[in-house]
Amino acid sequence: MFKRRTVLAGGGAFGLMALGGKTRAETADGFFVPAEEGRHQATFMQWPVSRRVYSDSVFLGMVQHTIADVANAIAAFEPLIMLADQADHSRARRFLSDAVTLWDIPTEDLWCRDAGPIFVVDGVGGLAISQIQFNGWGDKQIHTRDGQIAARVAERLNLSLRPSGLMGEAGGVEQDGHGLLLAHESSWVNDNRNPGLSRDEIEMRLLRAYGADRIVWSPGVWGEDITDYHIDSLARFTGPGRVLINLPDDPDMRDPFHVAALNTHDRLVAAGLAVEVIPEPVERRIDDIDFVASYANYYVCNGAVIAAQFGDDETDRIAVEALRRHYPDREVITLHVDPLGELGGGIHCATQQMLKPFKRHARMGLWRRR
Fold first, then answer.
1. Of the candidates 243, 241, 247, which has an alpha carbon nearest to the alpha carbon of residue 262?
2. pTM of the model as a whole
3. Residue 288's pLDDT band (boundaries 50, 70, 90)?
4. Nearest Cα to 209, choosing from 153, 157, 182, 170?
5. Could you tell me the fold of the domain covering 14-18+26-357?
6. Could you tell me the residue ranges of all domains in the chain?
7. To the nearest 5 percent, what fractions of the chain are helix, strand and coil?
8. In 66-179, where do the E strands start and end?
């Protein structure tokens, strides 16, 4: 199986849309990615099936069960669309609730945040897909099917596909819907994604793809995991200018991820953001160097926050309390998703939100549903 923390050869209310009467940056024709906590039309996920990725059939079954648990939890709050080849629908349906809709779009792996569509809106009722081309985290994993998912979703929904000129993954950039992005350079300024492009060129294309106007960069970690250290397992926007970050209580300065995480924290503070730290779990169920135990890798849907718990009673409680403070109008639901952590990811990595189109009221300057 392909672990995302191991380098392998081969080959997430519209009243929040405005701040102080000023809207976030937009592309030249008005499209932007809204804040993830905005009202969703649906959530997309992918059904994992590839035996080239999952050679262990028992573990594949565990991963499928976990993905179904996440999908079923989200489907209790909003429409959930699971992408899977028609031939895989009968097995998937055994795990999935009746509230989950299956679409015939073939998949290999489960990471819809990275391979799935990035939905953008224009504030006048328009919806499109911003295309950052997935290439298997720099050709580290098979992506024959997964590399086509965004385009196939756009075709099925009859939406325009807006190329960014970038290769990469949405898990490698965090956005607040108000013009600010966060990213690790290692996931973007990397010859395995964007050879020949400078950081400035990549920044310009990312800002255009998200309809943003500023980005906070941190170095990250090159070559130590398959994602080159995605930001969404470390730091997440919970509102404009507000960040929740997951850090170890006792960092090991010999660990490149700990060093990079502390660096990112300091850069966020220096950028003037309000940063709250929650601790990583200590007494977790899985004791493996490759295991990603990230409370930050949660998903916000309509009415709920779907988050992980890792078996450490104290830090599990601290994380839930933090999420309740940051999302007071939502129910916090925690799930046992250790198989995703074993793969180096989490709940946010497995999901992709489709925001509802909305219109800006011409006289009031307010945002309303379409």
1. 247
2. 0.90
3. confident
4. 170
5. L-arginine/glycine Amidinotransferase; Chain A (3.75.10)
6. 14-18+26-357
7. 30, 25, 45
8. 80-84, 100-104, 118-121, 127-133, 161-167, 173-175
